[in-house]
Write a structure and sequence with these properties.
Elements lengths: L5 E4 L5 H12 L3 E6 L2 H12 L5 E5 L5 H15 L4 E4 L14 H23 L7 E5 L12 H21 L5 E7 L5 H4 L4 H9 L9 H12 L10 E4 L7
Parallel strand pairs: 1-2, 1-4, 2-3, 4-5, 5-6, 6-7
The structure holds nicotinamide-adenine-dinucleotide.
The site of nicotinamide-adenine-dinucleotide has 28 residues, from helix 1 and helix 6.
Length: 245
């Protein structure tokens, strides 16, 4: 589906980002796998290199403009083009609102929201008509979660940003959309959860199971494809029904 195309996926060292990169690779896409740690990027790139595509790992802290600019410049240097940007990197550190300090708030906003401004702006000049940007939002954009006021605000921002930038990119025929996952089984989300907490999470999901990285990746692959050419500025919820109640 994506032969001769190149994608950047941020936060691709594990979890949903890794799953998205894998799904794009399976569709023949060349990938730049980016994460905050070089060894993690290299490991992911190595995993994908044997799968009939070109894969390159580039370290990038998405909250740092110089590193983001370098990520895009190196992608163009190595692949000559950028067709798909997946803004996936994100953090969700729980902190009751009363204990939250300014630095907690700023870090979540920088990694989850400012990153999307930085990565999108660095990428669009390199993108041709038909290119796609996909942001990973969250159901936290639509419902509240205790201990995650900063996170919920950042993800609400991601979906609002997506709508606004979509208007500016539509004349260039570049589509920007978002995917809002529900509870997805990843090292970040469930790595340290007890079986009891996992059971409670599953109980809130009408489909009766947590999401897999692949469930989110399937939506991303669709939005990155020509089949989504007429979808503009939307946030697609992929949550097994969680938000229906
Ligand atoms: N897992 C869920 O239940 C869930 C639900 C809704 C939304 N999401 C969103 O999906 C995305 C991925 O979540 P996940 O569960 O796979 O998380 P994860 O913690 O398992 O993986 C996130 C990856 O992002 C990287 N990362 C963190 N900070 C970074 C930075 N500053 N620059 C670059 N990379 C950085 C980490 O090193 C890690 O490899 C996030 O945006 C998250 O908010 C996750």
């Amino acid at each position: 589906m994506f032969k001769n195309k190149t994608a950047i996926i941020t936060g691709a060292g594990q979890g949903i980002g890794y799953g998205i990169a894998l799904a794009l690779v399976k569709e023949g896409c060349n990938v730049v796998v980016s994460d905050i740690n070089q060894a993690t990027c290299d490991k992911a790139a190595q995993d994908f290199s044997g799968m009939g595509v070109r894969a390159l790992g580039i370290k990038c802290d998405v909250s740092n403009k110089a590193e983001v600019d370098n990520l895009v410049a190196k992608t163009i240097e190595n692949f000559g083009q950028l067709d798909i940007l997946v803004n996936n990197a994100g953090i969700y550190p729980f902190k009751p609102f009363g204990q939250m300090i300014e630095a907690d708030w700023d870090r979540v906003m920088d990694v989850n929201l400012k990153s999307i401004f930085l990565c999108s702006q660095a990428s669009i000049n390199a993108m041709k008509a038909g290119s796609k940007i996909i942001n990973i939002s969250s159901i936290a954009a639509f419902v509240g979660f205790e201990g995650l006021t900063h996170y919920c605000a950042s993800k609400g921002g991601v979906s609002s940003f997506t709508r606004a930038l979509a208007l500016e990119l539509a004349p260039k025929k570049i589509n920007i959309n978002a995917v809002a996952p529900g509870a997805v089984d990843t090292p970040g989300a469930t790595g340290s959860s007890s079986e009891e907490v996992k059971k409670q999470t599953v109980a809130a999901i009408p489909l009766g199971r947590m999401g897999l990285a692949e469930d989110i990746a399937n939506a991303v692959v669709f939005l990155a494809s020509e089949k989504a050419d007429y979808i503009v500025g939307q946030t697609i919820i992929v949550d097994g029904g969680w938000t229906l109640r």
